[in-house]
Amino acid sequence: MSLLCAEGPDLISSLELAGIRLLWHPSLSEASAHELVDLLEAIVAGDEPLDILCIEGSLLRGPHKTGRFHVLAGTDVPMIDWVRRLAARARYCVGVGTCAAFGGMTTAGPNPTDACGLQYDGSQMGGALGAGYRSLENLPVVNIAGCPVHPNWVIDTFMLLAEGEMDASALDEFGRPRLYADHLVHHGCPRNEFYEYKASAQEHSQLGCLMEHLGCLGTQAHADCNTRLWNGAGSCIRGGYACINCTAPEFEEPGHAFQYTPKIAGIPVGLPTDMPKAWFVALSSLAKAATPERLRRNAVADHTVVPPGGKAPRGGKI
Amino acid sequence: MSRIVVGPFNRVEGDLELRLDIEAGQVREAWVNVPLYRGFEQILAGKVPMDALAITPRICGICSVAQSAAAAGALADAQDIAMPPNGAVAANLILAAENLADHFTHFYLFFMPDFARPIYADAPWYPTISDRFQAMAGSAAREVLAARTGLLHLTGLLAGKWPHTLAIQPGGTTCAVAAHERAHLSAILAGFRLYLETKTFGDRLEAIAAIDSMDELRAWMAARPPHASDFAMFLHLADHLCLERLGRATDRFMSYGAYRQDGGHLFAAGVWDGGVGDLAVEAITEDISHAWMSGTAEPIHPRNGVTLPDAERPQAYTWCKAPRLGGKVVEVGALARQMVDGHPLIQDLVAHSGGNVRNRVIARLLELARVLIAMEHWVRAIRPGAPFCHSGAMPDEAEGVGLVEAARGGLGHWLRIQDGRILTYQIVAPTTWNFSPRDRNGVPGALEQALVGAPVRPGERSPIAVQHIVRSFDPCMVCTVH
């Protein structure tokens, strides 16, 4: 449903501009019930070409490998079997959302439905289609991971696919389009100044950095959420809560409570991915010693209590 | 007699299959099957209680905030903590934006496109309706997506994003609002009001909310041409097709009460069963006699409930349990909320024709007007500088209940905590009520009752009347079988 929030222009216009004709969409199309089943059968029979197959939701293998936890209504055939048949006919196969990509939240805890992604089972290749799957254009599954997905990640991917501009080099190690996965949520974070000085929020609604106490994984999460922005001018961190790294395989089991940062000897265990720990510790302690009073106080307030100073920098006129 | 299987339905959220016995051109009996099981209640067991805020919204991409609000409510109950006034208002606004976006999406994108189908091509109203509402191609679709996107900018501002926000916490909301942001919230609502008043209603929202009887509604219709607005078009269409004779269920309605304010709710909690009565939450039970679940034969209250799938259970035909209130089937949703709240137009409509396709749609549109007016008041009630969120410790042993009204009706979360972990977590979603299977007494659920008598034209494989009835409930199947 997040896709319906596409803007600049709206979803229908965006698809039209990309030259994409929707064969079927669960929220937008007229065709229902037997009309859809007829269409799916025509695709499987090779009578109707399928350029892009988009799958939302994890693929359920249970109970006992039967796939009966998710049967496509009106057909008595498990959804996972329909997906395998359709994927064999698709020029491109796209997983929309972390569930379709890696299994996602439905695989958390005991994974009661034996769920997996299209071509991944968590961070392991495999899944419903298997590691060796390639669509007719010789691409693995394109994983637009995110829970939810940003609508324009999907639109941008479609436009590149439609132009024939998305090859294997456009995907990262988990099959995610690099157009958004080459960024970190940390990029453009409006709390960056608090991060630099380790001036941290202690409680929800406070302005400080969310990494030290409240579970934020923005320095590790692959996405452009703080530069592309959501629903106007939003992002998780702008909304005042932690990035939980929802574009990553196995984000659903972080090994700790989602909104809590586990620490060893006072140091958060999840540090930026490519920063040596000793350097982080050294810089952090220096930064903490240097934290301006303004940031120290604002970090634990829910609005700016000390504005930036008004004095011109020393050195005189510019 | 013949039997047909209808599905999969689109323009409903998730998976739905109907089995229909047809005799003399009518549905004689119906069985509703939800052919998907998700397992979220099993996933939640053993987790840290606060993790419910990250897990439960992901049950659904369309009722995400409602799940979030119910989880926050259950956790707040367990913690015995309350939101400061600013947090309560912001939480109402975040939930209301989702609910209105859902009503709006339902009318324009899910429900109305069925009347633009070729089966109606000979009807006198067809060219107008088809130009406006045809799926994807009608003039409404793009406008509506843009207006909906604009409304959800409110969620971007107050909650970071939609769906799947962590902004609603047990003790308040995570994003404090400054004075200029409050002004921007007003502007967002003004933009949506403009669309509703020019296109949806062709009248002031206050005038729509004030229509207080069927006669008044007739007078409102008579005062303007049929194509004056989308609401006017729908009312004329409903008359042509006698939509008030389609899809009557139990005429027993339940609401948990919507949007907390001033110690009560904007829309009252209660039950309608020939008159308004108090809601006895303790009288809610879930029956698994026809669900692919294992457990006791006795229906049990969700506080004590468990969810254990059993695909081999004899006589079962769906993954959906059968919730009952005092052993009875109830209908939930906008119509139920407005009946229980005592809105005079809705009460008059139901007094004349019961709960049906037309009245469900009118109640939803009425809520677009009533709730947007309330949202404007809430925005003005925000006090920049005052707190939005309190924090509190989570007890190691506790119970909690969170009851909210999603767009589609009452949503309840029942939580038990033991040794600091979730022991059981039970969710009863709106469509679990409306699309429930038969119970152990063989009494069919609300949709199963509503489908009886639906006309079936010769040769129809997916009867159009059946589709109207199903979509009139605005079902969300993925929540149903969480």
Automatic annotation (TrEMBL), chain B:
Keywords: Iron, Magnesium, Metal-binding, Nickel, Oxidoreductase. InterPro entries: Ni-dep_hyd_lsu, Ni-dep_hyd_lsu_Ni_BS, NiFe-Hase_large, NiFe/NiFeSe_hydrgnase_LSU. It is found in: Cell envelope. Fe cation binds at C63, C479. GO terms for cellular component: cell envelope. Its cofactor is Fe cation; Ni(2+). Mg(2+) binds at E41, I427, H482. It comes from the Bacteria. The keyword Magnesium applies. Transmembrane segments: none annotated. GO terms for molecular function: ferredoxin hydrogenase activity; nickel cation binding. Pfam families: NiFeSe_Hases. Ni(2+) binds at C60, C63, C476. Belongs to the [NiFe]/[NiFeSe] hydrogenase large subunit family. This is HupV protein. It comes from Acidithiobacillus sulfuriphilus.
